Amino acid sequence: MAAHRRWLLMSFLFLEVILLEAAKILTISTLSASHYIVISRVSQVLHEGGHNVTKLLYESANIPDFRKEKPSYQVINWRPPEDQEKKFADLRHRLTEEITYGRSKHHTLLKIHQYFGDLCSQLLSRKDIMDFLKNENFDLVLLDSMDLCSLLIVEKLGKRFVSFLPFQFSYMDFGLPSAPLSYAPVYGSGLTDQMDFWGRVKNFLMFLDFSMKQREILSQYDSTIQEHFVEGSQPVLSDLLLKAELWFVNSDFALDFARPLFPNTVYVGGYWTNLFSQYPKTWRILSLSLETQVLSLWPWAL
Questions:
Q1: Burial (0-12, 13-18, 19+ Cβ within 10 Å), 160
Q2: Other beta carbons within 10 Å of 98
Q3: Domain total of the chain
Q4: How far apart, in whole angstroms, are the C-alpha atoms of residue 22 and residue 69?
Q5: Neighbours of 254 (CB within 10 A)
Q6: ∠ CA 3-7-13, rounded to 5°
Q7: What EC number(s) is this enzyme filed under (predicted)?
Q8: What CATH number does the domain containing 258 carry?
Q9: Per-residue tens of pLDDT for the chain, all 302 residues
Q10: What is the C-alpha separation between 170 and 185, in angstroms, rounded?
């Protein structure tokens, strides 16, 4: 325990050194609701820490009141061309209705990602925005791992990035360590960690189904990748997740089943501990040196 505390202290002191010089940081927010809240809080805290923050924001018509705030850092708003905007708005409305009434959940999810894939293509086509982002030469990009378009933006910019995972580990394969199927149930299986033989068979079959569905989801971005990346250098979307310098996972042991973690995983707080609140705000957001390539667990509320 003492050794762990010493390691945390050394990491914290090293962090203070690397943060003495203000960095140019890009944050990307193309999703709404809690996804937007996380990126906005991160952007604000980093800005208050003296960093030069720029946020790329999709100005959707379906925006809650908190998006109307006037942040003190730079915000680049973008939206599709006027003739396309109504089409996207109508599609979003239909998809929202389908989700509300629970119609064909996976089929609806595919259409949602197809919608975001088309929206992403619109953004990547904005030469003015993409050229501006390239010319800014950011030191780091912070993104929401659920926002798959942001991975393509970062790949275009060729920058290092930090990824925030706003769901529990098992929601999707994000390139993080997988728990053995013998005791960690697949997301949505309805199983627990106490499985008999047939429970494990079901879990394995659910895993195969889960994997196929995930490939279908990622394939909704194929046309966008083919359109905006030259042949021979077209990225594989699932591989881009592996390039993250650092992962922040919004999870807690109370919300997920036990699973193996990387040796350099650091748990920095949760619902049942006050440890997290003892650190300064900057430490809460960027808790370790990027060179360590760690996975850091953090609670929902900053």
A1: middle
A2: 17
A3: 1
A4: 24
A5: 8
A6: 145
A7: 2.4.1.17
A8: 3.40.50.2000
A9: 444 444 444 444 444 434 446 789 999 988 776 777 788 888 888 888 888 999 998 876 555 555 566 778 898 988 877 766 666 666 666 666 666 666 557 777 788 888 888 889 999 999 999 999 999 999 999 998 888 999 999 999 999 998 887 766 666 666 666 678 888 888 778 888 889 999 999 999 998 998 898 899 899 999 999 999 998 889 999 889 888 888 777 666 555 666 666 666 666 655 445 554 555 444 444 443 344 344 444 443 33
A10: 8
For 116, the token pair is: 């975001």
Token readout for 180 is 């053995």
Q: Which amino acid is at 110?
A: L
- Would you say how long the chain is, in residues? 302
